[in-house]
Structure formats: structure tokens, C-alpha cells
UniProtKB/TrEMBL annotation:
UniProt keyword Metal-binding present: yes
Protein name: RING-type domain-containing protein
MF-aspect GO terms: zinc ion binding
Species assigned in the record: Chelydra serpentina (Snapping turtle)
Gene3D superfamilies named among the record's database cross-references: Zinc/RING finger domain, C3HC4 (zinc finger) (3.30.40.10)
Keywords: Metal-binding, Zinc, Zinc-finger
Domain RING-type, chain residue ranges per copy: 16-61
Keyword Endoplasmic reticulum (UniProt): no
Domain of life: Eukaryota
InterPro entries: TRIM/RBCC, Znf_RING, Znf_RING/FYVE/PHD, Znf_RING_CS
Signal peptide (UniProt feature, chain positions): none
Length: 119
């Protein structure tokens, strides 16, 4: 069995296996799988309306009950930290690019004017 990279592990914990998006209002089944509350609720309702076998986890096929879903705040907390980290990183990159822009423009002007010496 191959080991997952840290990024893959985070994606595994924070993405819903039904909608394949980041978890929204995450809940956990008794078998330990995470889903968006809306996705698993809709899945349970669709399953019970049909003529299917007992309700099963869409991930591992273990028997589940709609009433046994538990709030799971950990994936939501992880997502918040990732979003904040990305936002802060984007801000730092924007500031760095903005700070570098005048020197890039100076170098560009120097090259186009035929000046190649250092400033």
C-alpha cells in the first residue's frame, strides 16, 4: 500500500466523497467517514425512498442510520486553517510582486535602452 503525501491526506479528510467538494457542515457516520451534512442527508432520503437494501455508507457499505450522524468540527477547522494560510500566502506573493515590480521595470528599461551596466 502506497503512503499518501500530506496534501493528499488533507484532501482525503476535507473532501466529501459524494460531491467531491470541500466539506460543508461536516458530519461523521459511525463507520468513521465524513460527508457534507446536506449530501449524506440527501443520500439517506434517496436511499429510503427507493426499494433498496438497508441503508449503507456510500464509502464502505457499512450499515448506517441517518439519526446516527455526528457533527465533526475537525475537518472544518482544518479547512479554515488552509483557507487562511492560502489567503496569507497570496497576500505575501502580491506584496513581493509589487515590491519587485519597480526593479523589473528598471531592468526592462535598461535593456531596451541599450544600458547593460549595474545601477
Amino acid at each position: 500500500m502506497a503512503t499518501m503525501t500530506p496534501v493528499r491526506e488533507i484532501q482525503e479528510v476535507t473532501k466529501c466523497p459524494i460531491c467531491l467538494e470541500y466539506l460543508t457542515d461536516p458530519v461523521t457516520t459511525h463507520c468513521g467517514h465524513n460527508f457534507c451534512r446536506g449530501c449524506i442527508t440527501k443520500y439517506c432520503e434517496t436511499w429510503t425512498k427507493g426499494d433498496y437494501d438497508p441503508l449503507c455508507c456510500p464509502r464502505c457499505r457499512a450499515l448506517i442510520r441517518k439519526g446516527d450522524l455526528r457533527n465533526n468540527y475537525q475537518p472544518g477547522n482544518i479547512l479554515e486553517k488552509i483557507k487562511n494560510w492560502i489567503s496569507n500566502k497570496e497576500k505575501r506573493i502580491w506584496i513581493q510582486c509589487r515590491c519587485l515590480l519597480p526593479s523589473v521595470q528598471r531592468n526592462s528599461n535598461r535593456e531596451t535602452s541599450g544600458l547593460t551596466g549595474s545601477w
